[in-house]
Write a structure and sequence with these properties.
Layout: H1 15-41, H2 63-91, H3 99-107, H4 111-141, H5 147-151, H6 163-202
Helix pairs in contact: 1-2, 1-6, 2-4, 3-4, 4-6
Keywords: Cell membrane, Membrane, Transmembrane, Transmembrane helix
Domain Cytochrome b561 bacterial/Ni-hydrogenase: 14-202
InterPro entries: Cyt_b561_bac/Ni-Hgenase (IPR011577), Di-haem_cyt_TM (IPR016174), Hydrogenase_cytochrome (IPR051542)
Amino acid sequence: MIATSPSPARGPSPIWTRAFHGFNLLLLLLMAASGLEIYNANPVFGGREGATVPEMFTLGGWLAGGRDWHFAVMGLYAANLGLWIGLLLRRRHRRLAGSGDLDTLRASVSPPRRRLASHRITYTLMLIVLAFSLITGLAMYKPAQLGWLVSLFAFAEPAGHSSWQTLRVCHLATIPVMGLLVVAHVVLSWRVGGLRLLRAMVL
């Protein structure tokens, strides 16, 4: 029987990677909480009498406070996201999904390869959703200046929904979608590299 040497332990990720994960998590929580405060002032579903979010999950205390927090954090959020995408494309592009990962999910019978492909796809989807939330947020922040962007959401008008309402729904939807992707990212990271990988990402 041939003995196999254990694989070398994975060290902590570069400091900029760990800093991004921690800072981005903080920004996402602040953006979500302040966004839900804005939502409560005029719920997307049901108008001003619609269902609201418990105050314990919001930030700002009232509409103006929520807007102040949301727009203050938005600049940091955009800069952090842009920097991270730039670093990924330059140094760590192999973390992003490609057509080969989709082929792996369809044809591969190797569980480790399928898990790694799923991890890359989930990671890439997270970046897409984050960028989409920023784009829709900018369209809501400056609807007069970015009217062409708002008009892209007019696809639901035949069903009786204005482009503004559709835009609000799409922007709000990024919160639960991002939450699910974060959970999937953590689970897949654990399945790919175990607790050692999760700790290397943040410690």
